[in-house]
Amino acid sequence: MKEFNAKEEKDRIVKFIRDYYEKNNLGGVVIGISGGKDSGVVAGLFTEALGKENVLGVTLPCHSKESDRDDAKLVSDFYGFKLINVDLTQVNDIFKDEINKLGNFTEEELKNSDINLKPRLRMTAFYYLAALYSEVQKKPYIVAGTGNKCEAFVGYFTKGGDGVSDINVLGDLTVEEVIKIGEVLNVPDKVLYKTPDDGLSGMSDEEKLGFTYNDVAKVMNGEEVDEKVKKKILAKHYANQHKFNIPIYKRDEN
Asked: How far, in Å, CA of 76 to CA of 139, rounded?
């Protein structure tokens, strides 16, 4: 495999963004700044590609850690783009109150739905803000995704939530490669080397998944991995294919 050159890859991504924006007459971007490495790297790439004045960072706390918002501000302060905050806690709780009227569900029954509700609310907010700022700034804003290749391989994203975006610049990069590009972009160390978590469940990504992103990358590259770990990774990969392919009924024209 060709050796990864982070500087060259960063330059190619920046050109990819600029070319796409020019071709489609776009103006700005909305990025959810979680305080983690992926959103930090995406913010750095778009700031270089479009200029800080065309980047809108958004924090959307929802029963989440205050430290994540502090880390998001580290990123916005470093790159100089505008960062706004929209608290979704009450929206989430009002929705949950309505659901609770439907029956006496247990915490275990609600757990997965609750975890996935938050990224879906957040994506609604991102698209609302993109449409709003398109009108305010008189130029089209689109929503940037922040998911990487390792997450995609095992389906570690919410369908209709953080799996939705208008442009994804990390989708073909492993976690290790994202970090290397982040080093080139000088993403603040506290953010770049932070243990990845969803900021929602109270667990790290790797604790939730039961394997490391490094092992995911090895499986994708055909490298040796403990057989039990490999089976677990591939099980996730195949179980989540429905997130990528929406079946569409085709009429029989005969």
From this structure: 22
pLDDT per residue over 101-133, tens digit each? Answer: 999 999 999 999 998 999 999 999 999 999 999
pTM for the full predicted model: 0.93
Query: For residue 90, what are the contacts with CB-CB under 8 A and spacing of at least 6?
Result: none
As a whole number, mean pLDDT of residues 43-59 equals: 98
Residue 197 has pLDDT above 80, yes or no: no
Counting other chains too, the contacts that 149-153 makes at CB distance below 8 Å and 24 or more residues apart are 149/173, 149/174, 149/177, 149/220, 150/174, 150/175, 150/213, 150/216, 150/217, 150/220, 151/205, 151/213, 153/216, 153/219, 153/220, 153/233, 153/237
- Checking phi first, is residue 103 left (phi over 0); if not, alpha (psi -120 to 50) or beta? left
Predicted confidence band of residue 200 (pLDDT cuts 50, 70, 90): low
| Cα–Cα distance measured from residue 67 to residue 197, given in angstroms and rounded to the nearest whole number | 13
- With beta carbons less than 8 A apart as the criterion, state whether 74 and 38 touch: no
Q: How far apart are the first and last CA of the chain?
A: 48
CA-based nearest residue to 44, from 87, 79, 70: 79
